[in-house]
Amino acid sequence: MKFAATSADQNRKGVFYGASSFIVWGILPLYWKLLQELPPIEILAHRIFWSFVFMVLMVVVAGRWKVIAAAAGDRKKLLLMFFCGVLISINWFVYIMAVNTGQVIEASMGYFISPLVVVLLGVAVLKEYLTRWQLTALILAASGVLIVSIQYGKIPWIALFLAGSFALYGLIKKMIRVDPVTGLTLETLIVMPAALIYIATLEAGPAGALGSSSLPVIFFLIGTGLITATPLLLYARGIENTTFSMMGFLQYIAPSINLFLGVVVFNEYFSFYHFLSFCLIWAGLAIFTMANLGVLKEPLPLPVEQSEKSEAF
User: Fold this and answer.
1) Which positions ≥6 away from 241 have C-beta within 8 Å?
2) Which of 89, 159, 236, 244 is the most exposed place for a label (fewest CB within 10 A)?
3) Domain boundaries, the chain
4) Contact, 191 vs 38, CB < 8 A?
């Protein structure tokens, strides 16, 4: 009984940390709006630089230099971390740009779709199997994207890029298998020199934010390091104390908050077609999640190749 109570307490702790991480990610558009007077590329450069500074401080306090050095000494891991650093930097740029150009709703769609893109990558890269329920979920989500594309008259590139880049980032992270602190420290270290050169070039002229902006803007720029690292560390604590399936449920908190902010706070255009599209995506996510939890069961997994053969008959 004592063990059960301890396990329940640990699970509650994990849910608390996990939910906290996704809540922070969900309200980030409010933070980026505070910096909307600056170009997204300059915000990105400061986010990379100050994130690196914050992570170095954490490494110093925790005394993790040996772990960092060991990971950096592995050439294969370092190459993969280079790709991670580039991917997450581009993802951050597109997200900041989307928020500060009034496209929070489309950005939220990207993170709703992302778990399903992970499934596609698992099938294409890791040769995983696709069950009928997972295939149904993907078809529903794709239908939602198609409806928005027809309504817009164009493909929602922001949503698809955010979903694809974040899913690919997660896939590479799975292949690397390093702890979040080590991973983010090395990823920001790799792209930090380019960010620092860009900041220094701007500050040498009249356009640099640090030399020409108000104190609150400078404060918020420096704070980008804290708001980048904090949810990641909360997420890491959450995944240590609760199940991966529970974290899968909790991850939809962030795009749901994004969607709410886009519609209610930022007054972005949200039509009936947007609503129909999100309903299809949510239905796909519900089926996908229930299939992962074993609520929707299938006797045997259906490989993609087998699915195609059966359709031919």
Assistant:
1) 10, 11, 13, 14, 17
2) 244
3) 13-312
4) no
